Structure formats: structure tokens, C-alpha cells
Sequence to fold (191 residues):
Amino acid sequence: MHYVQPDLPYDEAALEPAISAKTVHFHYGVHEKAYIDNLNKLIEGTTFADEDLEEIIRTADGAILNNAAQAWNHIFYFFSLNPDGGGEPDGELRKAIDRDFGSFEKFKEDFVDAGVRLFGSGWVWLSKDQDGHLLITQEPNAGNPMRHGLTPILCFDVWEHAYYLDYQNRRADALRALWQLVDWDMVCTRY
Ligand code: MN
Fold:
């Protein structure tokens, strides 16, 4: 199988001012593409060549795992954002957020806080377990909650490449700005 990077459903400049066109260009067009290109080279001739991406993430190790997870994580992240996003979730996901975090405001605070406290590169995730309970987890580097049997709902990228051009060292500001872009209609379908 040869993995192809999906086109984003919005222009590179569409997420401004929260995320600049330059960041979308380098982050998705260069960094994310490199993970997919690397993965395609690494799996050639291996037992992973015909696996789907999620199966590779669950079962691979080393460079194949890292590139597969980074390929998947970035697609999940960029497709969670939308220039018409923002606002608040509703339906079953909203009920679960209120139940497990107390309120939507408290959830946002805890989520950003987990992203800020993650030392170095990685991702902050909202996932559900097999009983539908929500959890916020930190994953270093290419980490993905599917490795722990969880179902990912939302992620924010806290690698410096995600925000350095626009925010330099201000990770908390970069993460808080993402709330105005989260496409809750789409994210709610993952719960
Ligand atoms: Mn990234």
C-alpha cells in the first residue's frame, strides 16, 4: 500500500490568525508529508506494506511506528480544525465532558494545562475508554492513545514546529487559540 496525504478541506491561510498560512504550509505541507513519505519507504517489502495505518500504529515499533503515528496524528489534528469551528460541543460528547470534567470550561483548562506541562515534544489527547469515559492524556513524541486501547477524540500538537513560527515559546497561547478552530460537529462524531 502507498499512503497518500489527503488534501486539507481549507486553504493554508484559512486558519489565520490563530494559525498562520506559513505554519500550515510547513506543518502539514512539509513536516506531515515527510512522515508519510518516510513511512512509505520504511514499509516497502515488510509485513506492514499491506496494513492499514491504524493497524501499523497498534502493532509496529521503532521508526515505522513513529512515522505511522506522526502521519496519522497530524491528519487527525488538522482535520479537527476548521475556519468555521469554535463554539462548544453538544450531544453525547458534551454530556460526557460535563460528567467527566465538571464543565466544558474546566475541560478546556485541564486540556491546555496538560499540553503546557508536557515536557518536550508530543501531543495532548482527549480519548474515550471502552466504557465511554473520557480521559486527557499526554503522549511524548509520536505517541497515540490507540496503543493503550483508547479511542482518540481530539488532539493538540505541542511540538514546537506546531507553533514556533507564530507564537515562539508561548505554547499556552498557541493552544488556547485552537479553541476558536475546533470543528466540534466533526469531533462529536468520534465519541
Ligand atoms: Mn506536528
